[in-house]
Amino acid sequence: MDTRNQFLTDFRGEMLGTVTAQSTAEEFFQNQTLRPILKLQNDLLVEVFRNYIIKSKTDFLQFPVEKKLLFIENSIQRDIKFRNSLKGIVIGLFTVEEYVRYIQNSSSLNKRMMSMLIERLKNQVQLFELQTDY
Fold first, then answer.
1. Angstrom distance (rounded) from CA 77 to CA 84
2. Percent residues over pLDDT 70 in the chain
């Protein structure tokens, strides 16, 4: 188990963001764990959302930018199955210790995780207009 934990922390890279003496445990977890995982999983998360757009059978590509941003936010907030799938993509890269910390305050950390993911996808909205060859 130590091998897996070490591999994951090495693989994800350094902490992203700043942590100060005034930082809460949630901020520390966000910067130490969530940000590096979201960065590492970015390409997969973009592709998962691209697939979600296709499966939703909306005319996403024809939406104005504001409506696209709203679609991203609403999809993640309202589609429970989809949100749980996205959480799984992130949680699967937790170490055992991180998972233990996560379950102690999962509600608040889930809100942070989804908020960060929504912003990340919104900032890359132009990527959803590109065609993918499978």
1. 10
2. 89
User: Which residue in 82, 78, 60 sits closest to 69, CA to CA?
Assistant: 60
From 7, 80, 89, 107, select the one nearest 48 (Cα to Cα). Answer: 89
Q: At what angle do helices 80-91 and 42-56 cross, to 10 degrees?
A: 160
Host H or E run for residue 38: helix 35-40
Alpha carbon distance 48, 85 (integer Å)? 9
Q: What sign does the dihedral 97-103-18-43 (CA atoms) show?
A: positive
Whether the CB-CB separation of 38 and 117 falls below 8 Å is answered with: yes
Hey, what's the torsion of the CAs at 12, 17, 20, 26, to 10 degrees?
Answer: -70
Give the predicted TM-score (pTM) of the model: 0.85
Q: How far apart are the C-alpha atoms of 60 and 4, rounded to whole Å?
A: 39
Q: Give the residue with greater pLDDT, 132 vs 90.
A: 90
Q: What is the DSSP letter of 21?
A: T
Which residue type is seen at 104? Answer: Q
* Phi-psi map region of 33: left, alpha, beta (phi>0 left; psi -120 to 50 alpha): alpha
